[in-house]
Amino acid sequence: MMARCAGPRADSLNQRHELAHPPQTVQRADRPARVDGRHAKNPTSRQLRRRTAGRRCRPRCGGPHRGLIDRMGPAGLIDLIGLIDPTDDPLMTMPRLRPPLNSLAMTLVAVLAAAGVSAQDAYPSRTVTMVVPTVAAGTTDLSARMLAQALAPVLGQSVVVDNRGGGGGSIAATAVKRAAPDGYTLLMQYSGYHVITPLITPQKQWEHADFQPVANVLSAPQIIVVRSSLPVKTLADLIAYAKANPGKLNYASAGTGSLQHVTGVMLEQHAGIQMVHVPYGKGTGPALQDLLGDQVDLTFGTAPSFLPHAATGKLRVLAVTGKERLHNLPDVPTTAEAGYPKVDATSWFAVFAPAAVPKPVIDKLSADIRTVVQSTAFRQKALEYGVTADYQNPRQLGDKVQADLASWAPVVKTLKLAAQ
């Protein structure tokens, strides 16, 4: 007895199968064939449907179909049959279609698998997010936005900046640590948060092993900036004022363990003065606003955040921490020139990714960032902001992190820095 298919478009398939394989009747010797059609050699299609209603169609051999063909159902099978040879007579071709269908099924699976591999290899295929450990404003945010704007055309995909300030950089770092390791979530990190904060803050949200370096982008010395209403014009004036008013000057930073914090402590120790530290855990932006509002007396930071306000006279730059003057602040002396060569701090801003991101993705990102950072347009724009375009590859950046950890650890211990 012929089995019967059930499901969408089953009637069409059943009719074709019935035509191709008419049922054979076996006449018993003790039972003559009936003339009412029930045992006739040529039963009608209605009789065949009545006999086989509700039964599933089985192949002639090999057991029930499994895998792709079974999941496609009769309708999909009929479509595939039409694709193989639409001019064939179904009566002649149905029994011979099974081997080609098996081959076609395997071919389709192989093609789909290859397409999946190609999709993974074609990085990036969607928007890349760059997480910043500060609120908008500040050099870390500027670094991310400069890079995102220039990197998008090179990658061929949009790069968006996601500000997640707070916790001394731990909120952003933790978010990137927990992100899928596919290269679509990156961290624009600031050296103070990545190197110094872990040395003085007992935080366990993330470790350096949770990330892998991608590329260094910018570097910049710290500058010493005061509110315009403070009665000082030079670094010597500031130190004299601090000594005359011990404990009355306060300075803002991007948070405990930030490079601004360390620079302030270095100045206190080497100049023999005492100031009050006011940490802003969400970055330079809030500290800058309070400095402009005369809520704090001074701060330390990189030039991009402060130059526009210094140009309008709202802030005053007293010194550059380092051995060289900034080209866009030619009249501002260095701390070394002012007699304090050990007050020397330089920030760097670099891209990191979750530790498990595949190496080919890291290599592509780093190469594309190099293309951007080493371009004339990017270098010129960086100089205008008072920072330096400073590309370093993953190995160089990793070495820099380890070297900074080794060099800053004794400084932190000597300065007796502690979380506040």
TrEMBL record:
Residues 28-39 have a biased composition (Basic and acidic residues). Residues 1-65 are annotated as: Disordered. It comes from the Bacteria. InterPro entries: BUG, Bug_dom1. Residues 47-59 have a biased composition (Basic residues). Belongs to the UPF0065 (bug) family. This is Uncharacterized protein UPF0065.
